Amino acid sequence: MWDFLVNIMSHAGAQVVFLVLFAWYFFHHRKDASMPASRIGWIRFAALASVFAYLMLSWSSGIRPALAQAAVFGMFLINLYLLNLVICSRLERPYRRAIETYCLEPQNQEHLNGIWGTGKRFYYFGFFLQSLLSGGSPARFLHEIAAGRIRDDIHHALARCGEAGQFISLNGVLSYLESQLGRDETLPQDFKDLIHKEIQQFGKHAWIEAQVNDYLRTAIENPENIHNPQWSQMWDKARGKP
């Protein structure tokens, strides 16, 4: 069995078939929003395909057997690199979907557990070789990388949801107040009932909702415009001057 696999991998035709399959996979998923980190770009794939074509032409030009085997080995390394990207993409897709699910229901703790589980698999696999060359504990290196990257990905995802009005909005603020009100056991029940009615009544005013949402969006994108909206206009005019 092992000899059969070695014979297959050492044949240039098999390497060409693998390259075509990988090319189809990446071009088919080139616009997939669930794999922004692992999908391959046109320039990088063109460079790899050019090197592969050069090795293929070298192999078919009748060079010495040792050099021909070296060319096939180079094609094998390119396909091995592409296989690594395919595995990363398969691990990244459930991770990104878990983040999207969390943005829709951020108060659910189970969604965070799903993000951590899928995110660890994705980043552990992606940085495994770097961990071996880190000079320290590979396990600690991978844990720190995964924790930092997952935290940043969640922040960016929540910022995008906030800009779309899905998370950082008046409804999001009111939902947070109601959840905190229900958790606070030091407040009397009569006071909770009163505040709950006030929160519901506050959320029914369309004008207030529009103003609060505009304030939150401005605080995220351009906080300097909250109290001085003319400042940005002055800055834009100053940048336009020679």
The SSE order reads: HHHHHHHHHHH
Radius of gyration: 27 Å
Mean pLDDT level:
80
Work out the strand percent: under 5%
Query: What portion of residues is helical?
Result: over 70%
Low-pLDDT segments, ≥5 res:
none
Oligomeric category: single chain
Distance between the termini: 72 Å
Would you report the number of β strands?
0
User: What is the total number of structural domains?
Assistant: 2
Structural class: mainly alpha
Largest sheet: none
What shape does the CA trace take? elongated
How would you describe the overall organization of this protein?
The protein is an all-alpha fold and 242 residues long. It folds into 2 domains: 2-163, no CATH class; 170-226. It has 11 helices and no strands. The protein has helices at 2-9, 12-28, 42-60, 65-104, 109-126, 128-132, 138-163, 170-183, 189-202, 206-221, 229-240. Helix 2 packs parallel to helix 4, helix 3 runs antiparallel to helix 4 (65-104) and helix 8 packs antiparallel against helix 9 (189-202). The longest helix is centred in the middle third of the chain and has 40 residues, at 65-104. The relative contact order is 0.06. The mean pLDDT is 80.
